[in-house]
Amino acid sequence: MKKRFLENTFLVAVLLLPAAFFAQNSIADSLARLLEKAPADTHRVTLLTDYAWEINESHTDKADSLLHIALALAQQLNFPKGEAVAWNGLGVVEEIRGNLEQAKIYYQKALAIRRRLGDLREVGATLNNLGILYDYQGRFDSALAVYRENLRIQRQLGDTVKVARAHFNMAAAQQEMGLYPEAQNDLLSARAVFETLEDREGVAKVQAQLGHLWFEMERYDSALVWYERALRLRKQLDDPGRYAEAILDYANALDELDSPRIALVYYQQALDISKRLDDLPGQAQVYINMGDAYKHTGEYPVALRYLQMAEEICLSLNDVQGLMEVYNIIGDVHGRAGRLNLALEYTQKYYQIAQEAGDEKYIQGAYKDFAEVYAAMGDFDEAYQWRVKYDELRYKRMNLRLGVAFARKEELFKDQKKEEEIERQKQELRIRDAELATARTRQYALLGGAFALSLLAALLFNRNRIRARANRELAAKNDAIQRERERADRLLKNILPEKTAEELKLHNTVQPVRYESVTVMFTDFKGFTMIAERVSPEELIQELDNCFRLFDTIVEKHGLEKIKTIGDSYMCAGGLPTPNETHPADVVNAALEMLHELGALMQQNAAAGKPVFEMRIGIHTGPVVAGVVGSHKFAYDIWGDTVNTAARLEQSGETGKINISETTYQRVRHLFDCTFRGKLAAKNKGEIEMYFVDGGR
């Protein structure tokens, strides 16, 4: 689902259209004829590298040979620019062959030469290639580092288009690392540039990527808004392939929003375009999604038919990723239809492929599917073994993600830099004192006794005056540093819990902590998207800020920890970072007060003709893992099934109501009157016993 801008011509995919194909052959033939007569000079090096580029997709081995000849000639002629181009070309050839580690070595050789030459444009291009290679390897932290360096270079060069592309690539890497706020900021920066330049292609790519960001966070309603914008813009651009992708994205969000029938209409449109373009990978992806949609409608034979068509294409293309997705969904279809042996067989198929490919995401999914199938078969011992494997891998991957470096030392250690500046100024004063002493000695030797004594007194007075002024300046700067330190501490403690902030300052890192019992609350405003379309952005943000400031006050009053806001959703929790036994009641009391205070505020809004929000609340109690993420802006966050269940309870609730789980109810039933709602279906969670809180006793 992720998309990248590729700015170096060595990395742009060759379009296999007839006109482009024949044009490429014509250029290659012309270059071959020129090479026959070209002398062994720098121009020949350029011809060799250009010829290699023209044929690297169709004749990889020959391109490799030409580039090695160009490299040897460039080194012989002491032509470093041509040598760098040859190394870069060899990196592309190895990337085409799938030898990513060797490609990285070649790119780094090209980068070293271009840095030495001070050719910032070429350095930026090679950094971009290297970042994309790291993306392919899954080394997103390394990719992010080189993308940032490329961004600094493009800003220095004033190339606004490449600045926007660097922001886009950084966002994609950050999204893979789970740094969603940072990814959103970079995407919005890229969008602003593309809109200013009226680059509709760039705007459409950013809109689609913003949709992917919300989709990955399972906020499918927000994803749908961005996908719809991208779809409208793609319809205006003359690019059927990209238009089909936009239709597919939009349909995927509809399917996740429980509208598979509508999604199937759009899937058919994307399929028609893919067939016209003879785009087999595109057809395979549409067939997979159609199979998944028919699975959701319960039409299992139709779902299997589309999935089998996808399987045939993936096998012909040796598309490992596609095959894993196909077998995963086929297994799910058979499991839902009660054909457990077949479900087990297809889970085994995609598990084996995932092991060979080293794809931990699908390996983890297979562990979970094995546990569910064996449990449905009644083999609970085997199911338990697979569930243990699933939990171990899940927490391992979570810890790896949390292990990303999330602190900018400059931000935390500004005090140290200021102290170094003070020390530098002290050194300057010492040098100045020495110079004054030298001048005094010279004058003392030249002048007579009385005159020397009077001059010495004057010099001493002047020196004391300078020292006094310097001491005053140092004292003022020390006061300023202390104020800045206190201000930084206050800001850090506003962002993170106090205990967590102290740990971060002390160790420059925060260890993830597992809490066995925490109560999580989600709130959401009904119809927020429709309200947002009717009012100005300034008024909408003001009203949302009023609501969230109100919630912040209530959360602090009841000893809870605000986790984050996402759009119109507010998330908080009780029982962390300092565990306690009262957190279920604390959270429910806070929820009751939120409803009451919001109602009073909305009465004032209604009287003033302002937007009126209606709120749902969901609460669940259970274990979570808490930690700090972010490399630009720190964020204290929590993860685990408890968080997902609380979110589902909020989505399954009603406006003006507090919807709690059975687990929370058992902890607060002696304190609050509750109404049992029964077992209700929650998306991806099955049936959950739910209660409405009517009030305190």
Distance between the termini: 51 Å
Beta strands, count: 8
CATH topology of the domain at 509-696: Alpha-Beta Plaits
What is the helical fraction, as a range of percent?
Answer: over 70%
Radius of gyration, whole Å? 32 Å
Percent of residues in beta strands? Answer: 5-15%
Mean pLDDT: 83
- Main β-sheet description: 8 strands, mixed
| Strand-pairing-aware structural class | alpha+beta
CATH superfamily of the domain at 509-696: Nucleotide cyclase, GGDEF domain
Descriptive overview:
The protein is an alpha+beta fold and 697 residues long. Among the domains are: 409-495; 509-696, Alpha-Beta Plaits, CATH 3.30.70.1230. The protein is 72% helix and 10% strand. It contains 28 helices and eight strands. Strands 1, 2, 3, 4, 5, 6, 7 and 8 form an eight-stranded mixed β-sheet that branches. Helix 7 packs antiparallel against helix 8 and helix 11 (220-236) runs antiparallel to helix 12 (240-256). The model is unreliable at 1-24 and 404-416 (pLDDT under 50).
Keywords:
697 residues, alpha+beta, Alpha-Beta Plaits, 8 strands, disordered N terminus
In short:
This protein has 28 helices and eight strands. The chain is α+β, with helices and mostly antiparallel strands and about 700 residues long. Strands 1, 2, 3, 4, 5, 6, 7 and 8 form an eight-stranded mixed sheet that branches.
Blueprint of the fold:
Blueprint: H1 18-37, H2 42-55, H3 60-76, H4 80-97, H5 100-117, H6 120-137, H7 140-157, H8 160-176, H9 180-196, H10 200-216, H11 220-236, H12 240-256, H13 260-276, H14 280-297, H15 300-317, H16 320-336, H17 340-357, H18 360-377, H19 380-402, H20 409-412, H21 414-446, H22 449-495, H23 498-507, E1 513-526, H24 528-534, H25 537-557, E2 561-566, E3 569-574, H26 583-608, E4 614-629, E5 635-639, H27 641-651, E6 658-661, H28 662-668, E7 672-682, E8 686-696
